[in-house]
Task: structure prediction
Amino acid sequence: MRIITNTTRIISAIALTACSYEPTGQWEAMDTVDIYKNNNHPLIVAFVLEKGEICAISEDIILRKDLGYAQVSCEKGRGWDKSGRFKKLTDLD
Result:
């Protein structure tokens, strides 16, 4: 039983490090984009990005119901995007 427990811990650690929802890089909003406080229904708008604003966005997507959400970090705050209306500028943090 001890071997199974240690194996489970190792697999869990690998799975957690494989996905990162932490926003990275520089992404430009290609249109007006609503950024949400939460990543599930009912959606609550935290703030609105205007075309040309720069943010960091998580590469990994969280799937909820029929939508995928990426975590966003901008000067205006942090939240969740479901639009995908961003253009990648750099990989820098």
Q: What stands out?
A: Helices lie at 2-18. Residues 2-18 form the longest helix (17 residues). The domain at 20-90 is CATH 2.30.30.40 (SH3 type barrels.). The radius of gyration is 16 Å.
